[in-house]
Amino acid sequence: MALHESLRARWRQTVVQVRPGPGPDPGPYVDDLLTRWSEPQRRYHTLDHLSDLLGHLDTLAPHAKDIETVRLAGWFHDAVYRPDRSENEERSAHLAERALPELGVDAARTAEVARLVRLTASHDPDPGDRDGETLCDADLAVLGGTPQEYAAYAAAVREEYGFVPDDLFRQGRAAVLRQLLDLPRLFRTPLGHDRWELLARRNLSTELDLLTG
């Protein structure tokens, strides 16, 4: 439960930073988000991933224009997650668009959170989109882990798609890996690129070789 309490404290701090004044109790909103992030179908997209992402955002914060808005987007980016559906990012953005105005967040910031959540479908922000670059780099940071960490991530992703036959999973996963490797840069922030780019490309290439060899 220590992770839950730590995340609750982080949520409350972010809400206080982004609201122009008093508003509804943030507690029920974070309870809903924590419940969503704890759903049984999740193996990688879990509270641990959320906590790791928020930690990476702390590291990358100097690159962002509005880090608190990026943190809100981090909370919502996989709040709706079903491995058997392709519209998770869109549904997560809709959730933010409903919840944040109720919470007292202004319309402009709500729209930006939703935009950032939708951006995680492609992880391909436009040049100069510093907040998009920050969120996408934090979300992809797992790709730049040690070989052991990456192997655990890849295994968790396979578990999430346990309902997919092996042949179909290998085909679909290989397509995702190729799409990532075809990006000119996986990581757009200077720190993210320096820290994770080479390791991530090595990890992705190794997994692709294992799937297609």
Brief account:
The protein has 213 residues and is an all-alpha fold. Helices cover 69% and strands 0% of the residues. Helix 3 packs antiparallel against helix 4.
Describe the protein in words.
The structure is a single chain. This protein has 213 residues and is mostly helical. The protein has a single domain, classed as Orthogonal Bundle (Hypothetical protein af1432), CATH 1.10.3210.10. The chain has ten helices and no strands. Helix 3 packs across helix 7 and helix 9 runs antiparallel to helix 10. The termini are far apart. The mean pLDDT is 96.
Shape type: globular
For the terminal residues, how far apart are their CA atoms? 42 Å
What's the assembly state of these chains?
single chain
Task: Briefly note the structural class of the backbone.
Answer: mainly alpha
**What is the string of helix and strand elements?**
HHHHHHHHHH
Radius of gyration over C-alpha positions, nearest whole angstrom: 17 Å
Helix proportion range: 55-70%
CATH architecture: Orthogonal Bundle
- Poorly predicted runs: none
Strand fraction equals under 5%
The CATH superfamily appears as Hypothetical protein af1432
CATH top-level class: Mainly Alpha
Tally the beta strands. Answer: 0
CATH topology: the name is: Hypothetical protein af1432
Q: Can you summarize the main beta sheet?
A: none
- How many H/I helical runs? 10
What is the arithmetic mean of pLDDT? 96
Q: What is the number of independent domains? A: 1
